[in-house]
Amino acid sequence: MAETSTRAWMRPHDWAEVVLGVVAVLSFLWVDTDNAVMWTMIVLGALIALDGLLSLAMPGLVYGEGLQIVLGALLFISPWVMSYTDLTAASWSAWIIGGLTAIAGAAALPVANASHGRMAGQH
């Protein structure tokens, strides 16, 4: 796993973040939403997926994993902040995807730190 964590496009945590972001973006296709909920899920999902892609391309980029934790937390609290807890499927989608995104970011943080440390010694 140590070698995998330093190679671009090989970290499973970041692939999970990309998949979770895409699922959030597309979730309006299978859950009832209104316009604000749909765009909340699309924007946060796109940011999650894009940050996951950036982390895949640049495995030593530590701040990307921290950003994933923040984005996951934002998606998790969005049903309360955007007042759509009455839309049960959309709320559960945000809670599950947001929670899994934060967990994936937290799990990838030590791997990114180790990768960053190895890459810093190469300069």
UniProtKB/TrEMBL annotation:
<protein>
    <recommendedName>
        <fullName>SPW repeat-containing integral membrane domain-containing protein</fullName>
    </recommendedName>
</protein>
<feature type="transmembrane region" description="Helical">
    <location>
        <begin position="12"/>
        <end position="30"/>
    </location>
</feature>
<keyword id="KW-1133">Transmembrane helix</keyword>
<feature type="transmembrane region" description="Helical">
    <location>
        <begin position="61"/>
        <end position="80"/>
    </location>
</feature>
<feature type="transmembrane region" description="Helical">
    <location>
        <begin position="36"/>
        <end position="54"/>
    </location>
</feature>
<keyword id="KW-0812">Transmembrane</keyword>
<keyword id="KW-0472">Membrane</keyword>
<feature type="transmembrane region" description="Helical">
    <location>
        <begin position="92"/>
        <end position="112"/>
    </location>
</feature>
<dbReference type="Pfam" id="PF03779">
    <property type="entry name" value="SPW"/>
</dbReference>
<dbReference type="InterPro" id="IPR005530">
    <property type="entry name" value="SPW"/>
</dbReference>
<feature type="domain" description="SPW repeat-containing integral membrane">
    <location>
        <begin position="13"/>
        <end position="106"/>
    </location>
</feature>
